[in-house]
Amino acid sequence: MRHWLMKSEPDAYSLDDLARDGVEPWDGIRNYQARNLMRDEMTVGDRVIFYHSNAKPPAAVGLAEVASEAYPDPTQFDPDGKYFDPKSSPDDPRWLLVDVRYVGHFERPVPLPEIKEDPALSEMVLVQRSRLSVQPVTETEFDHLVELAGGIRSAAS
Predict the structure, then answer these.
(1) Is residue 137 part of a domain?
(2) What is the Cα–Cα distance from 94 to 55, expressed in whole angstroms?
(3) Secondary structure (H, E, C), 105-133
(4) CA 123 to chain centroid
(5) CATH number of residue 25's parent domain
(6) With CB atoms 3.0 to 4.6 Å apart as the test, which of 54, 64, 108, 138 could cross-link to 48 if both were Cys?
(7) Which pLDDT band, with edges at 50, 70 and 90, does 153 fall under?
(8) pTM to 2 decimals?
(9) 22-73, pLDDT tens digit by residue?
(10) What is the domain extent for residue 18?
């Protein structure tokens, strides 16, 4: 099992939205490195730290899991959509997505300033190259971040 951090702007799609929906396609990724991670390294059951970017402050807020293998992102084919890519075709799709499943909210969000100040997290991709929207997290970083958050509340709570 691998571990990931996936960013979403809470006004676009929040962890509360995922809790309501249960499973959702992680669409709109238009970065080749993020696409390649989803295509080549993500597998069903991998754990995901759900991170709210463009929040005040940005924070890790809960957990999800990868619920599907990578498949073509249908938003790339919609000429009226904001993620349309005229260079992509159904025969040769450029962009992929995975489905993510809600696991739980952290007992408390872990804000970015706290993550950056923690020596145990100083090598996280989030700290080193913060702009990547899908990024790997080591098992040690993952466990430490969950511990800082006080664990998770189950989907039933």
Answers:
(1) yes
(2) 30
(3) EEEEEEEHHHHHHCHHHCCCHHHHCCCCC
(4) 18
(5) 3.10.590.10
(6) 64
(7) confident
(8) 0.93
(9) 999 999 999 999 999 999 999 999 999 999 999 999 999 999 999 999 999 9
(10) 3-70+97-148
